[in-house]
From TrEMBL:
Residues 2-175 form the F-box associated beta-propeller type domain. It comes from Solanum tuberosum. It holds the Pfam family FBA_1. This is F-box associated beta-propeller type 1 domain-containing protein. It comes from the Eukaryota. InterPro entries: F-box-assoc_dom_typ1, F-box-assoc_interact_dom, SCF_F-box_component. Transmembrane segments: none annotated.
């Protein structure tokens, strides 16, 4: 299983970089150790392996999202709680300039959510996490924004949206404030969160 991230170092080298984390999996125990980390640089034109860095978090698979904010790549990740019966979701980060991994904690309302129900993206210049849920009365999603980058207490829920039949996933935000959803038929539908 692998996870990709793409970003640019505009401050130092003006170089575009692709980061790949490769996890070896097995059916019984999940991941076999930490992932291999590789970075491709447009300037050098080659992949290089990063050694001496151990990532302790698990990641969701490549079909989910990444966000590039403040020169840093972000992915949804999770840790298995020591009792082995639950997981704790968080955001794993990678600075394109320094090539250093880090983490950003999620508010309690998101940390206990299954990581495959979370998606991360950019809204204006802020980090956003979308939480998808299924209830008896239908599907919904919550849009959470980190108002101050890196500050746990700044996570705030912007919207809770009941998804009508066919609406699947938030794919982005328009300049006018509309949220763009993909549908089961692969169409894009704008949604005005203020008028519903």
């Amino acid at each position: 299983m692998f996870v990709l991230g793409f970003g640019v170092d505009l401050l130092e080298t003006d170089d575009y970089k692709l980061v790949r984390l490769v996890y070896h999996t097995n059916i019984v125990f999940g991941y076999n150790g930490p992932p291999k980390i590789e970075i491709y640089s447009i300037i050098s034109g080659v992949w290089r392996r990063v050694v001496g860095v151990e990532i302790k978090h698990c990641m969701v698979d490549v079909m989910w999202s990444q966000a590039f904010v403040n020169g840093v790549l972000h992915w949804i990740a999770y840790d298995v709680v020591p009792n082995g019966c639950e997981i704790r979701s968080l955001v794993m980060s990678f600075s394109i300039e320094d090539e250093v991994f880090g983490e950003i904690m999620l508010t309690d309302a998101l940390a206990g959510v299954t990581p495959t129900n979370l998606s991360i993206m950019l809204f204006e210049e802020s980090l956003v996490v979308v939480n998808y849920g299924r209830e008896i009365d239908g599907a919904s999603c919550e849009v959470w924004v980190m108002k101050q980058y890196g500050v746990l207490e700044s996570w705030s829920r912007l919207y809770r949206i009941n998804l009508v039949v066919g609406m699947e996933k938030v794919v982005g935000f328009r300049n006018n404030g509309d949220i763009l959803f993909s549908t089961r038929r692969n169409d894009l539908v704008p949604y005005d969160p203020n008028s519903g």
